[in-house]
Amino acid sequence: MEGLFEVVVFLATATLGAALARKLGLLAPIVLVVAGLVLSFVPGFPHIRLDPDLVLVGILPPLLYVAALETSVPAFRHNLRPILWLAVGLVLFTAAAIGLVLHLLLPMVPFAVCLALGAVLAPPDAVAATAVARRIGLPRRVVTILEGESLLNDATALVLFRVATLAAVGSAVGVTEVTIEVLRSAGGGVLIGALGAFLFGFLHKRISDPLLDNALSLIIPFAVVFVAEEIHASGVMAVVVTGLALGHKLPVLMSAASRLQVGAVWRLVRFLLEGLVFLLVGLQLPDVLQDLDEPVGRVVGVTAAVLGTLFLARFAWLFPVTYLTRLVPSVRRGTARKPAKYPLVIGWAGMRGVVTLAAALALPLTVAGGREYPRELFIWLAFAVIVATLIGQGATLPMVARKLKLPPDDPVQDALSAAGVQQQASRAARERLDELADSAPAPVVERLRRGVEDRTNLAWERLGGAERETPSQAYGRLRQEMIDAEREVFRDARDTGRIPEEVLVRAYRDLDLEESLLRREDDR
């Protein structure tokens, strides 16, 4: 009962923190981390010591899965080269740089365990980067690259962490062992992910009940990660592959009712889990400080060196990769040259999150021969990096984006493309209606024709300016007033006993669906 109470308190606090962030116009991850830091010293506030398995198996898979579901596979494929340069190349480069700096500062600590911490600190957080990028309205291609990086970089980092940890505790790790580990982890993850996409896609296609579709969707990330971990493959890679494949095929795998319900459920799950993970990071401060038993000067010096290395390594990798690779003719032909502001803003979006702390807590207690090393200092470094990057880079990223004046996506071009495709869709709908017109009364056919015309007109109206009310906006405003009046009549009829509760529920459901169509533009 006490554990359930603590969970409710954490979720309620995360919800209030997110609401406060929206009210103040701030970024929710930053507000929640700061709230966790403050609440960690409040007497009587529930406390939880972060369990690495809880994060890596319980929280990360559903967050990665829903992010993968919503990722555009064509856009992901189009930007695969920069994504891989960041998710694989940058992670390895950053881990090596941090490992080398740590080993130089702490020569008594084996390089292998320094490299393990480098792997822990290297990947930007899957939640923070995309949450901040979308919130401040970065260009679509930048968001796609950051999303793609955050989907894959954890897999790279965790594979490197596993290899470095094996070396640190004295297991023989040569070229053959490393190759086998990489193939088993990455290759096995891709294989499990592909099998998961095939199996669960097959099940989704044969389920017609939205509730069952929802239940299956919530089970998928955990099922995939459990199977992957059982064979020591990358659960992160498996979940991402399954999510990308199912998300791309979702329009033909689920009914409309299932897609609407699954989308709503996952939005809620993501909102609660994202809030929870950032709050939990802040709440770990007392534990991190309590276990830290190092001279203050050493702590400050090593922390500053690691933060500086982490910050500089991202830019030291990004700019050469962005521009030197253009010396290759095939790369130069495939992409247009981007101004320096693009790698600069991508470099600034290097916030770390809860996965970094969870992996740090999984560091071995001792290294080869049973020797001790400053493990508590390493855990502190992970915590300090999370807080510094989230609050420092996360809070300043909107300002940096504004100063750089990155050109936003052209809404007119988006509207023009949408209108052109909508016109093609309307033509296809009219042709299908003409084929079936003899099977229905003429008034019904005419009503359907008007509906097709209205959707086409709405698409073209979005190309107009916002200075005056369009016919569709006027329709939405007046229809909303009519729906409110209808609701009041049904509610009064229920209260006076003229209709039973079931009739009211059905009427409200129909009116709610219609209102959601009127308001769909406000949710974008």
TrEMBL record:
Family indicated by similarity: Belongs to the monovalent cation:proton antiporter 1 (CPA1) transporter (TC 2.A.36) family.
GO terms (BP aspect): regulation of intracellular pH; sodium ion import across plasma membrane
Chief location: membrane
Ranges of residues in domain Cation/H+ exchanger transmembrane: 12-402
Protein name: Na+/H+ antiporter
Origin organism lineage: Bacteria, Bacillati, Actinomycetota, Actinomycetes, Micromonosporales
Function: Na(+)/H(+) antiporter that extrudes sodium in exchange for external protons.
Highest taxon in the source lineage: Bacteria
Membrane topology: Multi-pass membrane protein
NCBIfam families: a_cpa1 (TIGR00831)
GO MF annotations, alphabetized: potassium:proton antiporter activity; sodium:proton antiporter activity
Pfam families attached to this UniProt entry: Na_H_Exchanger
Keywords, comma-separated and alphabetical: Antiport, Cell membrane, Ion transport, Membrane, Sodium, Sodium transport, Transmembrane, Transmembrane helix, Transport
Coiled-coil features, chain-numbered ranges: none
Chain segments annotated as transmembrane: 24-42, 54-76, 83-102, 155-176, 182-203, 264-285, 305-324, 345-365, 377-397
Subcellular location: Cell membrane
Keyword DNA-binding tagged: no
CC terms in the record's Gene Ontology section: plasma membrane
